Amino acid sequence: xxxxxxxxxxxxxxxxxxxxxxxxxxxxxxxxxxxxxxxxxxxxxxxxxxxxxxxxxxxxxxxxxxxxxxxxxxxxxxxxxxxxxxxxxxxxxxxxxxxxxxxxxxxxxxxxxxxxxxxxxxxxxxxxxxxxxxxxxxxxxxxxxxxxxxxxxxxxxxxxxxxxxxxxxxxxxxxxxxxxxxxxxxxxxxxxxxxxxxxxxxxxxxxxxxxxxxxxxxxxxxxxxxxxxxxxxxxxxxxxxxxxxxxxxxxxxxxxxxxxxxxxxxxxxxxxxxxxxxxxxxxxxxxxxxxxxxxxxxxxxxx
Length: 303
Description:
Layout lengths: L3 H23 L1 H11 L4 H22 L9 H25 L5 H8 L2 H12 L6 H18 L7 H34 L1 H23 L9 H38 L1 H13 L6 H18 L4
Helix pairs in contact: 1-10, 1-11, 2-5, 2-10, 3-4, 3-9, 3-10, 4-8, 4-9, 5-8, 5-11, 6-8, 6-12, 7-12, 8-9
């Protein structure tokens, strides 16, 4: 049985891993926006670079975990293929598309809605009735998003593209929520690291095929800045957070991790304001607070 000091250290490292994983993931939209600003790179090309660079890492993880039990059946592999396509390829592609017209801070805030979508999907397909607290949390979250986008409604072209971008990022959040709801049982049975590695490998295939079908090879003639952004995004904002978050969840549990997860949108908003000069007015800031508070109410379970 571990001593109290050793248990405290184990938990402290879990908290540290949580913060590091959330912050690393939060810089992904910043890196996407910086790549778009550096050169008119297509989302298809940028997604291809991210997935292709990350692929060897996830292939190595899959090979390392290959002997773990239970062995996957054909039905399991079909589920991995479907969930990888929806949860990683589609979610990533919609996010990359939407961030062409949406700021990094707002994009991260919309993505952060996925726990509320998990709640709604569980109600629709698993017949799990939400509590009054969860319903209040849903209302807070979506009132908050309405406040954030309220000053961008309009008939002009820029307003229309902004709303298209928000819709695409929301679609990304929905795809990830579907992945979580549909894959929850399989993750518990197979293991989160193995399931994630297999899913990411599967998600790389359509990203690669899409690039070769839609873009010429000359699309890879990119300035060094774009390549560096893609490498940092793949290694430090894709692969690294997977390890950190998986270990953090094991050490501190999902309930406490949800609290630390609220750091994500704040980190992206601050980094966007500093590095991309994205500004939020007081109404948008108030909406952001409502979204974060509502998502925390949904995510954190009462004892």
